[in-house]
Amino acid sequence: MYNFSEVMSKNSNEVLLKIIIVNRFTYTPEAVEAAEIEISKRKINNLDEIKQRYISSNFQNFQEASLEQLNAICLNYKVEHKKKDAEIVYILEMGGIDYKTAKKIVNDLVLVQEEIDFKNADNDMLIGGIALAIGLVVTIFTFLNSANTGSYVVAWGAIIYGGMRFFKGTKNNKI
Questions:
Q1: pLDDT digits (tens, 9 = 90+) for 5-62
Q2: Residue ranges of the alpha helices (H) in 10-98?
Q3: Any idea where the domains of the chain sit in the sequence?
Q4: 115 vs 19, 59, 153, 174, CA distance in Å?
């Protein structure tokens, strides 16, 4: 068993606060717990005030955001930043959203993602179908002319990309 207490005791207050508040999801729960125990042992004056400053300087305030804005922000965290649901809930909480509301917003992300996928389905089918058709036409045309030229082209990239994108669109198009 790794001795997190010993390691955390060697860190500065600033590092411990970053572990506890900002980077808690990049550490194991045991490491975060050891950091919390160590910071409480140090009997720092105004600890709550210092924590609040860390929160306000490292997290966006979401209290004035609309539900649409919160959905977009959460979707960005999930898709672009590869954040897990628990991390997104924590980020929302640090931004002033209560736990119950944050949890509901994150749970509703599935519905928001499905709605976006549905809206993009027709476009995916169209672009995929065009790419697939171009790939097939190039392949067939060059194959038919191969008697004259001695070679032909199989447009694998266009065929595979077009097919995958087309079928992604059909999967997301729930008519």
A1: 888 889 988 888 888 887 888 888 899 899 889 888 888 777 778 877 777 777 778 8
A2: 13-17, 29-41, 47-58, 67-79, 85-94
A3: 1-58, 113-172
A4: 36, 28, 39, 10
